[in-house]
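Entry type: protein chain
Record version: 2
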Amino acid sequence: MPGGVLQGVLPIRRPQVARDVLAGVTLAALAVPETMGYAKIAGMPAVTGLYTLLLPMAVFALLGSSRHLVVGADSATAAILAAALTGMAAAGSDRYVRLAGLAALLTGGLLLLARLARLGFLANFLSRTVLVGFLTGVGFQVAAGQLPDMLGISAAGGGTPQRLLHIVGALPHAHGATMAVSASVIVIVLATRRLTRTIPGPLIAVIAAIAVSRAVDFAGHGVAVLGTVPGGLPRPGPPALGWHDTTVLLGTATAMLVVILAQSAATSRAYAVRYEETYSQDTDLIGLGAANIAAAFFGTFTVNGSPTKTQMVDGAGGRSQLAPLTTSAVVLAVLLLLTGPLKYLPIAALAAVVFLIAVELIDISGMRRILSVRRPEFAVALLTAVAVVVVGVEGGIAVAVAASIVDHLRHSYHPRNTVLVKSPAGHWRSAAVLPGARTEEGLVIYRFGTSLYFANASRLFDDITSLAGQGAVLRWVVLDGAAIGDVDYTASVVLARVLARLSEEHIRVVFTNLLEPVGEQLDHYGIVADAYYDTPGEALEAFHRSTG
């Protein structure tokens, strides 16, 4: 069904149905405490986290193309939202919820505009290196934000560094019972993980915390509890629609758009490759946009493609969107029948669950791997992580995009240009560009390693000058364009200077391996070589004929 609905569900494979349903139940068990934690990160009422598992999750399951991507509340977008709404309204208030709905509406609208403008390629502007650094920074920031509730101390305003300084100063006033609850939850979750990841440790910890809280009256002993959680379905209603609020939150929605594009596309692509399936990034944009618009009008906040939830389903054997649809059905039953006990949930228990989620985002192994294989990219990842912690998530997004672009420019600014020479067996091989280097006497075949543009065109000039200005007499310069995909105007001016200089020295200039669009560009610029050949081998044969 190209371009239609249910691409992630159909065809239904009967032997797989039971596993998909079981995976959906497993996801619900794991995602209920997790999404309540994400709601806490976002500054939203806890129940709104469950709302993300209803209509938004189901909408993407029906409209998206990926059979694996699971859409719901996400830590990165929740942190961006909280950073934006702080100061605009009291966390958890009706106005705060409506502003969160506006942010979701704007994000959904931008996702649909991105689909219309075919901007899905923007997902590629956040490299894997930058994403590792970004999520590591988010994890550190979110984990630090949970410490006051875990310790039973008052939270401080300001950025993460200021908050940590406040926490250190307030440690003598930490509440013992609250700390015991936090520690118990962490022990339960880590113990179950040590046994197997299929056991929903966070859910077991939350249920145990609720049971003990109700039995011994945690609230009466100074341990803060969640309080009444409204049951039933979310009430539909419009988000805040004021012009001022819209202009204030548009930048936030743009930041979330970038994160959603990068994270969702990367996850969909990874699982499509793993299972040799096709998916449409454009169709997924429609599903993600519609899911966020549904979130806006049903009392919840921005949703994103979640790598962790996707892995939960995959690890439980789910292979289609039937699993998230099952999750939505289970959460519906929870909202209708089981919200009463949630009022006894200690806030410290929820904070501990969020803390552990955040710690998992801190990808120390990923950072070490980057450091071991590519130190410059590690510097980019570290810069991004530090930016998120110091200046906040939105500032971190800007640094992440800038760092990705700078990293790309760094590669293209220093292309791996080579001189082509023949091996003893008669095959072409690449040699370093050294002053006076020759492919053979009187001839050099020079390959520029990337597209020519304003920043790297001087490398072409310097290399050709170095090759032609030293060494044995040079008769032909063969410019091989196999790696050149584009020539901008500045580069064309430099290339014209190179050709004119070689002509003055009576050196013949030949082009090979030019892509047709590049050849058309050169014609448009008025750049004409002495001859054109399809391959370096043909140019070499022509050189031999001319000197024979």
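Comment: Strands lie at 71-72, 304-305, 418-422, 428-431, 443-447, 476-480, 508-512, 531-533.
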